[in-house]
Prior knowledge:
The chain is of the alpha+beta class. It is 50% helix and 11% strand. It contains 16 helices and 10 strands. It has a 4-stranded antiparallel beta sheet. The protein has a two-stranded antiparallel sheet with strand order 1-2. It has a two-stranded antiparallel ribbon with strand order 4-5. The termini are far apart.
Amino acid sequence: xxxxxxxxxGKKKALKHRNMVVRGLGLTPVKHTKAGWPAVSSEVLRELAxxxxxxxxxxxxxxxxxxxxxxxxxxxxxxxxxxLCAMNSIxxxxxxxxxxxxxxxxxxxxxxxxxxxxxxxGRLSSRRPNLQNQPALEKDRYKIxxxxxxxxxxxxxxxxxxxxxxRLLAHITECASMIEAFKIGxxxxxxxxxxxxxxxxxxxxAGDVLLEEGDQEExxxxxxxxxxxxxxxxxxxxxxRKAKVLNFSIAYGKTAHGLSQDWxxxxxxxxxxIDAWYRDRPEVLEWQxxxxxxxxxxxxxxxxxGRYRMLPDAMVKNRAMRGHAERAAxxxxxxxxxxxxxxMAMLKLHRDERLAEMGWKVxxxxxxxxxxxxPEETHAEAMAIVVAxxxxxxxxxxxxxxxxxxxxxxxxxxxx
Length: 416
């Protein structure tokens, strides 16, 4: 009887196996894995699904729509792939963010991370949990940052430096065009694009496009204000995006080879874009050359406050090792100086007698952002002190003014 039961159970298990035929849709693979197989990364799936295939009035379908003949089958396929992407996103969110916060919170629902001071550039890093790696605001679809809330009767002040690395690059290199652009204000990346591409500068001078929103003139037509001229960032969006990438990539020491891989272009094409950037900023190129020469000769680089980072590999003959060290030689003075600015600002905030008197204190620092908590009734005064303090971390002002954006609310999400 036992043997017969085992045989019957075996038959049931065998029924779980089925012969399957897998057919392709005839789609040309967008990308391939290193082994040569068609890639099915989230980026590829997003292209297949589209931006918002389930939108009730204006769906934007991906390439899977036409591959399945359009209509309802194409729509269902795009929505199914989009749901698959969403499931992966949810799984990542739960395991990487929500569960660590739940397991590491104390009896009062607060989390206390460990901060590491011993980083290569001097910036802080955190762990258990990594509070510096919470979802970016535009990607925080489940409002995880809204869970970081001030206590009863209290508020948060969230203050963030604007384009800190680029402003420090302008100061350190004494780059005239960057200093002037920051002095004028407005959209720095649009100004960069105008300096890189003569035809954009010509379009601005001719009045075909406008550089800033404030330059926009309006005329009344039938009682309705009509915009006359399009914005540079809209007409030349591709060029502005390249200028933005270059602004940060050059500050971080990225090479033409690295940019060619990011953009999917040849190294020569990437080099042409970099050369166009440097033509308007020769001081940056000269500073980078001198900084690398110093690292090659002495094996170190320094930050704005004189902190050393030893780079012995900058003195070796191995090209790969030396190249890595040379990139660090021009990146560390920017990243490390940003750390100098933030550290000095935090020290001044910590020592500020008025903030202490009102009951405000720094509770977290993330990259170029600092978060304070204090009594709700004094948040406006506290925010003003924070901005004024962060804008002048040193006794001597920099060649470029440091801009600080600050907001106050009950949660981290609402204050961003």
